[in-house]
Design a protein that fits this description.
By secondary structure, the protein is of the alpha+beta class. It has 4 helices and 4 strands, in the order ααααββββ.
Length: 162
């Protein structure tokens, strides 16, 4: 009887050691996976300020809603009045010379009876005529602007120029 009890105790201790080792392994792995880039407070505050003003200002909302997102008709975004208004507004609100920005506006387009989401500029297309986002930590904030005319997704990208 004494031999069977020893085996039971040993198995219990082995199970406890296994649980402790698994627990230690999980504790050491989880913090590393949560170590994703957190948006700095300066950037987050600036994003919220700009996006909130775009949501609340009728003229800026109208420029987002009227923004041409159709890649078949876009010549150069910089020539559109909507792009100029939004670009000027954003640049006037970024006072830190080390912060750079870009933005996209996305909307629905009907293609062969299917509705797809298109963005201008389209950073996902490597052959795009427009510059691509830099290869560094870029912080994005999106907002949906909707009216009876339709809807658009405005995305603001901010990053530090170092």
């Amino acid at each position: 009887m004494c031999g069977k009890m020893k085996k039971g105790y040993l198995r219990t201790i082995e199970a406890i050691i296994a649980v402790v080792l698994i627990f230690i392994f999980i504790i050491t792995i989880i913090p590393e996976s949560n170590n994703q880039s957190k948006t700095p407070d300066t950037i987050k505050s600036l994003q919220n300020k700009i996006v909130t003003k775009i949501e609340e200002n009728k003229n800026l909302r109208k420029n987002v809603l009227d923004y041409n997102v159709d890649p078949d008709t876009i010549e150069t975004l910089e020539q559109s009045s909507e792009w100029q208004v939004l670009n000027t507004f954003i640049s006037d609100n970024i006072l830190d010379n080390n912060i750079r920005y870009d933005f996209t506006v996305c909307g629905d387009k009907d293609v062969n009876g299917e509705t797809i989401l298109v963005c201008a500029p389209d950073f996902s297309n490597e052959g795009d005529l427009y510059k691509e986002l830099p290869q560094k930590s870029v912080y994005a904030k999106s907002v949906v602007i909707a009216s009876t005319q339709g809807q658009r997704i405005f995305r603001l990208y901010l990053w530090y120029e170092v």
